[in-house]
Amino acid sequence: MGTECKPIITVSGEIRVFESLESGLTASLASEAVEWKRIHGRATKIVYVNASFVPLDPELFEERVNPSETLLNDPILHTYWIECANNEVYKQSVKEGISSWLNSLKKCGIHSDWLIILLESPDSRKSSKLLPRNSVLDKIKNEVGEKQRERCISILDPSKTDSRSLESWQNLLLCMRTKVLVAYNTVLGRFEENMRKQREMRNNPAWNFCSYFILQEELAFVYEMLGVFDESLVQYDELDALFTQFILNTNVGDTPNWLKGLTGEFNDWSGLSLNISVNHDLRKLIKDAKPSILDIRNYLFSRQCAMLLLMNKPWEVAKRSLDFLHNCVQELELLQIPCPKGSISCWVLLSCLEILSICHNEANSLYTASLWNYAREKLKELGQLCGLFPQNTITSEQLHMVVQISSGIRDTHYLQSSQPPRANPVDKLKEALSSKEAFRKYYLELSELAISTYKHINRIRSARLVGLDLALFYIEAKQTYLASTFLQDALKSYKSEGWELASKETQIKLIECFGSHIEPQRYVRSCALIACSISASEEERKTYLTHLMDFTKKVSMDSPLVTDADGVFSIVSCKIKTDPNQKIISGSKLELEITFDNALDSEVDAREISVILNYSEAGSIKERSKVIKSFSSVSSYPNKNRASVCRSSSSASSLTKAKGSNVLSLVNDEEVNTDFEKRTTRDFLDIRQELDSNQDRTFNSARLVCENINRILRRKDSSGYILKDGCSVEKSISEYRFVCSNVLITKGLNTVILSTVVPNKVGTYTCKQQSIAIGGVEFISEIEESESFTSVYEEPEVSLVPLSRLLIGCEQTINLIINCKSAFWGENNCISIDCSTNLFAKSTESDDMASHLSLTLPSSKPYDIIQIPILVLSNFGSLKSVQHQITVTTSKLVDGIKINKGSKSFSFTFDPPFSIVSFSIKTAMIRKFVCLSLIGTEQALNIHEINFQLKNNEEEIHLKDLQSKDSFMIDAYAPCNYLCELIQDNKDWDGKRLGLDVDFLYEPLNQKDPKMRRIYNNNLELKDLKTLYLVNSKLDPYEGELIQASSMCSLVVTIELTYCAKDVSIMYEVLVEQGEWAVCSQETGVLNMDNDNTKQNITVEVMPLISGHLNIPYIKLSKYIPSDSNSSEADTKHLPSRSEPFSDGQVYNINRFDQVQVFMPPSTNVKNEKMASYTSIPI
After folding, report:
1. Calpha distance 394→436 (Å, rounded)
2. Coiled-coil stretches, from where to where (predicted)?
């Protein structure tokens, strides 16, 4: 009603003036919002003011009994419209009319809610300069509105488009909006005061809630009319709270008379109608004080919903609805109102459908889901009451019940003018109650809507409870295949939450649905679970165990039935029995110890227990360790270990990488062998402590970290072992498995040893599934903490290892080492050895050396190591190291035919048994000596028959052996020298070039056999052998017999030519150590030597700078080549004079290493001077 009404403004005065402005005023008044400043400190609101203009009728005010009890039909503002051009007209007629209008308003009790509007022309605004404020508007303000001058305004003709006219028009609109809101502040203040007095009289026996309801609703209508929907909702909420309090007080006090009148005969259970417009039928019943409890509730809640919808809050409607419906049902029970059967269910169902027709949206699913379920439950009650369920037969009494329910529903209760038009809930209900098929269709529709909405908001448990009711409906309809799906979903929820009794009852219903022929796999699974259920009675467990055993005998063993063993046979531990330090070899026998728990009440005979292995190639699985974590703090504080609520479950072994190899080996973990850890720690929190410290190692913070949060905090309605229905399990197809046959499984824990032969296929085998075959049924269990092993097959490794450094010409031992690895070696295996050129080998000392060798290997076990010594000999003689290659080939005799399995080549370096340290020419004056210096290696040798032979010996030069021994020994790493002299028969030999061959025999010191002797030879070339010059030097002091520091002395040098030459020029240089000698005369010079002048003397002045034993100055001789003086100036190839050095041995310096003792000069500070003489130190 509030949205249909507008504030009433009366019009008086010159009506023609208002009529000329009415259309524009009505359209413009609500075009802009205005701020409503409310009284009593209430929050301001932004509202749009609209109005309805009516002529003033004083008779309407006289008919009102109590003006403070009505709001909507009373004028809120009174206006007086005039058009006056000058003051004369104002005095003659206008002033008297205004005074008469104000007096009539005062008689009606209106003193301030009025407004005078003067329509002026632009010329009338021009006032006299002599008489200011003398306009018509000023007269009105001064004479009529002396205290309320702001209520007298003027406007210019709005048809004009000038700025003054537009400004005056906007001022009128603003003033009128403001005055309307100010008037409402006054009126609402009086109205609320009267309403408060009426509410305080509620304990008066004559007080009636219906009258008070209509009174306060007037206030709600005003707020609704002004667009303040939240304030209007507050009024309805207060009425709701007041009415609820009256009903609750009936338990502790007397029931008011007005409330007793509401608890009369209950003959109308029409549902809610949520049209935004007011339901005048229900409001009239309330106004006449003749409603029922449901009438008041229906009307009050519909008005609350209307306000919420106007506020665009449909989710709030859905949120309030469920509490409203439950409260109404409880109030009817509390007031003990006799209701016909099915009436309450009918009212709830119609109300739910009406609410859902407004609020059914995905955004509101959080609140509409329970409404769909509530409607379904009430439809189910009506169906059971009217005999519409599948197994029921409709009787005449039930037909009468349908008619009775339909009679209490008013079709006119739902307005057909709603936009957009929607389906009438009454029509849906009547159609559903018309037949079983219609009821079934509508019930399934509501159930599906409830389930889908619950799932949409992730309330899976509620959805499955609805599905359980739907399953029972399908069971009654003999559609068990449809019921089984919902029963299984409900079973998952019961199991995840630990409802054992509900799980057992659901399993029994599933068995009825499945049957042994319809779905045998589910039938077996359900029978096994009931036989193991702790909530089932002993008789029930025995019964279903018998059904299970009978069924296993009927199934063929050739095509066994596979089902999940979870809950029947639970794996406790799984451990491979093997030595952790031993690798698992293909073809060996391996055992597995598995412990599982039998939840059945009696012993059962298993024809086979097996563990299926999953194969993966070696190296394809990541290296992982399954050892229980050691909880240690990550902070820097010592002795702060981790604390855990429960340690993570871990298998008894783990895969670790063998050190130094690429083979994964099995390592057992002895820390996880307790049954408690394996069975109880899976769902426990694994928590560790972490401490943080500052940079100065002071404590900062501490926290707890959960290591297995991803496994614990996971959805349990769609994942996890506990929710498996047992039918999705599949037996892995694999030819590799551990097996044990004919096992008697006792109740409780059972430990069984299974065995297998390690397959020949190399790789990693992981225990994936356990299979327990009982008759024709196989119970499959997934092994979560999987045990694994790696089968290895390694080819034998062959290596050749020398025992010492290999030398040319010496027999030495090389060990042939064969690592059998994982292979079994028999008598048919053999090895061939092939040597490169000049290399020979033999296996024993009695055999002869040969380049090819064949060996037969003895029998061996895996990972045995075979060592065979091989003697090798290299005949190649040289001072350089040589490379030899030995190829080892493994083969096997199969039916007398040798089949090569592989070959490998090894390279070895053979070093000479000795090395020539120096092969040099030694000089003594003009004599020449050849020095051969040898040094041994690791092997001590005997040297025989050393022979030097000269080549190009035309000058009759021969060698004289200076050694007396024919042979001598070279110890390991010890040097040996051999010396001989070159005898010159021809003195005119120039010594330019001479060839020399050296050869001798050698043999190892411990091998005296002549066959072991080896010859060594080398060719050498000797150049510039002859001594050309002899140099002799001598120091003579100038004074006395002693050479003193800082005293001059003479260096006398004698140079002698030893061969016949013509005009040979040589250059000499005096070389001294800096800091020891100073040359005081010419340092260099050129001498000419010939046969007539073979010896020359040179004197050079030198001075010793320090005292002590000093090397005498060195005289260096060089070949002097003068410049080419015969060449012309134009010759570009003219060469300057230059010097060239002599070769070693051509110049012999007799005093090369002589020293002289130099004394300090005599002084006063030097006492007890020691005498010294010239000293010659030959080197």
Report:
1. 9
2. none
pLDDT at res. 990: 62
For 555, the token pair is 């199934």
Count of residues in the chain: 1179
Rounded distance between C-alpha atoms, residue 935 and residue 930, angstroms: 17
Mean pLDDT of 933-953: 75
**pLDDT digits 0-9 by tens, 69-118:** 677 778 888 898 888 877 877 787 788 888 888 888 888 777 668 888 88
Tokens of 704: 């707890």
Instruction: Quote the CA–CA distance of 597 and 724 in Å, as a whole number.
Output: 19
pTM of the predicted model as reported, rounded to 2 decimal places: 0.57
Paired with 944 in beta bridges are 967, 1001
Distance CA 648, CA 669 (A): 14
Give the pLDDT band (50/70/90) at residue 667. Answer: very low
Dist. CA 1127–CA 347, nearest whole Å: 144
State the helix-helix crossing angle for 293-310 and 209-225, rounded to 10 degrees: 10
The angle at the Cα of 88, spanning 83 to 94, to the nearest 5 degrees, equals: 45
User: 952 pLDDT band (50/70/90 cuts)?
Assistant: low
Query: What span, in angstroms and rounded, lies between the C-alpha atoms of 313 and 358?
Result: 11
- φ, ψ dihedrals at 127, nearest 5°: -100, 160
Q: What secondary structure, in 3-state letters, does 1132-1159 show?
A: CCCCCCEEEECCCCCEEECCCCCEEEEE
pLDDT one-digit tens code per residue, 572-623 = 998 988 877 777 887 788 899 999 999 998 899 999 999 998 888 764 433 3
**Separation between Cα atoms, residue 936 and residue 973, nearest integer Å:** 5
The answer to whether the 8-201 and 560-617+729-791 domains have the same CATH topology is no
Angle between helices 365-385 and 460-476 (to 10 degrees): 20
Q: Is 90 exposed, middle or buried (0-12, 13-18, 19+ CB in 10 A)?
A: buried
Q: Among candidates 834, 797, 571, 586, which has minimal Cα distance to 679?
A: 571
For residues 297 and 283, give the distance between their C-alpha atoms in angstroms, rounded to a whole number.
Answer: 11
Assign a CATH topology to domain 914-1022: Immunoglobulin-like (2.60.40)
* Cβ–Cβ < 8 Å for 1113, 1079: yes
Query: How far, in whole angstroms, is CA 908 from its chain's centroid?
Result: 54
What is the C-alpha separation between 398 and 388, in angstroms, rounded?
9
- Does residue 798 register a pLDDT over 50? yes
Q: Would you list the domain boundaries of the chain?
A: 8-201, 209-414+422-457, 459-554, 560-617+729-791, 808-910, 914-1022, 1029-1122+1138-1158
Q: Are 800 and 816 in contact (CB under 8 A)?
A: yes
Rounded CA separation 510/500 (Å): 15
> What are the pLDDT digits (tens) for 342-400?
899 999 999 999 999 888 888 889 999 999 999 999 999 999 999 898 888 888 888 99
Closest to 934 measured CA to CA, from 922, 946, 923: 946
Distance CA(500)–CA(508), nearest Å, equals: 12
Token pair recorded at residue 55: 């002529």
The DSSP code for 987 is: T
Determine the angle formed by the axes of helices 500-518 and 520-532, rounding to 10 degrees: 150
Q: Tell me if 81 sits within 8 A of 154, measured CB to CB.
A: no
* Whether 266 contacts 336, CB under 8 Å: no
Domain 1029-1122+1138-1158 listed as CATH 2.60.40.10:
yes
Closest CA to 51 of 11, 1, 108: 11
Identify each DSSP E strand in 793-896 by its residue range: 797-802, 812-819, 829-835, 839-842, 852-856, 865-874, 882-894
Contact 974, 991 (CB under 8 A): no
The DSSP secondary-structure symbol of 576 reads E
Tell which CATH classification among 3.40.190.10, 2.70.50.60, 3.10.580.10, 2.60.20.10 matches the domain 560-617+729-791.
2.70.50.60
